[in-house]
């Protein structure tokens, strides 16, 4: 996948270094598990590109590095030290202790003994590396609720914003006992107890499933299932532990039925296999096209291959929305509950770039948020909007702000920004209220890149464009904690547009934060090429800005309310 740093952490001072994000282009890990000695070794190589800012690149690894090389030169492992940057235990990242140029390419190689990761090991199904009489069990044991529990537990990895391919070369030595590899990667057997596994470029640090167990300890069922929307056939693999009480044939059939149900409701399944291990523990964990789960959590975990690992959170601070929507779906997705603004604020998204856990409130308070959305716009329209989001963005990370922008622009329910202010971002009420308006000219313009330059260029057909707006919080108002700006394209007519009927549904929107009284800011939103009309078409861009208790009145026109704006233009 191409580098995308929109949801990456900003440059951050860490000691004497300026820590900056990287994009991993390729990870290769060679793992040898010696069952005779009970020792595992890893040689890992990361090819990466530094982001748009010069500095010391960040990554994560919860193993103890023995040796390191950077661009072929020996590097003291001390220069890859972990630094505590986030709230709570185990909230650390590693920093390459060298300043590197923006956009430069590098190779980092490390070796280490594979061991239980230096991560929060809580939960019903933690990471395991266990040896016993020639038998090896290795479980990735990922978790959203415990820090350091994604790919970084075992291998050099990145934060959730990044997508990258990687290869695992795994060999079990020192034993004649056959082992089975359970994985959502493309595995090739290259010898006795030896595999090469390739994971695709759209995977994030949250995606990969690896379970290694003695072959005589697990039972496999595998069939091919035809899906109703994509028309594709996918392989369904279900596994259980020998002696487990699960009815594997029945559960296997249910996986196929769930895949068909969710594809019908939301769009094509992303992948050609679904791999599920019934692990004999409580609860479950989702992977991309896979799960480790108890039977009772099966529907929840399969659904996550649409919302959590088909669309994935762009950062751990965005990890609330997939659990929230999946929990809402668990209840049938038709329950509604009005927002109660007398309730205390709820912070589901703290907007902390180095947060490493999903808040437990995501399940109950998050589900309540979606019940509130369903109350305002209807359960069926909410389902439609979430399906549109999935189909437009599947295989990519999605931030909370992008989710909010989609819900507001698609539904026209601008009061959703009020609900998000209090029940997603957890902000208290401002006194007095913010009052947002479009700023002085140019208040609305288009660019061919997201460059924030205040010179209008007509949109070009056949490519993405970026609509820009200048937003002001008036001097006598209160502080604005979050706001949304929506942009609609309509054919230009002689009739003046009326809010909201002509402004929604909008083609795009953007969410921003923290605008003080008397201050202004330029914001932008991507206008996808597919949404642009043909060259030569005359269109009007209709924009509106909304914040908590700051909205234009229904029935108003652009000249009647400064929170509305219009620009007529021609598609080039």
Instruction: Give unreliable regions as ranges.
Output: none
Beta-strand content bin? 25-35%
For CATH, the homologous superfamily of the largest domain is named as: tricorn interacting facor f3 domain
Shape: globular
State the CATH topology of the largest domain: Immunoglobulin-like
What would you note in describing this structure?
With 572 residues, this protein is an alpha+beta fold. The chain has helices spanning 248-266, 298-303, 320-330, 361-377, 379-393, 400-411, 416-423; strands at residues 12-14, 17-20, 22-34, 39-50, 56-59, 65-70, 73-75, 82-84, 92-95, 105-114, 128-132, 135-139, 166-173, 179-183, 186-191, 194-199, 210-214, 218-226, 233-241, 273-278, 284-287, 290-293, 312-313, 397-398, 436-438, 444-447, 465-473, 480-491, 508-515, 520-527, 538-547, 564-570. It folds into four domains: 12-206, Sandwich (Immunoglobulin-like), CATH 2.60.40.1730; 219-303, Zincin-like, CATH 3.30.2010.30; 313-423, no CATH class; 436-570, Immunoglobulins (Immunoglobulin-like, Sandwich). Helix content is 15%, strand content 35%. The strands form seven sheets. An eight-stranded mixed β-sheet has the order 7-6-10-4-3-13-16-15, with no helix packed on it. A hairpin with a 2-residue loop joins strand 11 and strand 12. Helix 3 (320-330) crosses helix 4 (361-377), helix 4 (361-377) packs across helix 5 and helix 5 (379-393) crosses helix 6. The mean pLDDT is 97.
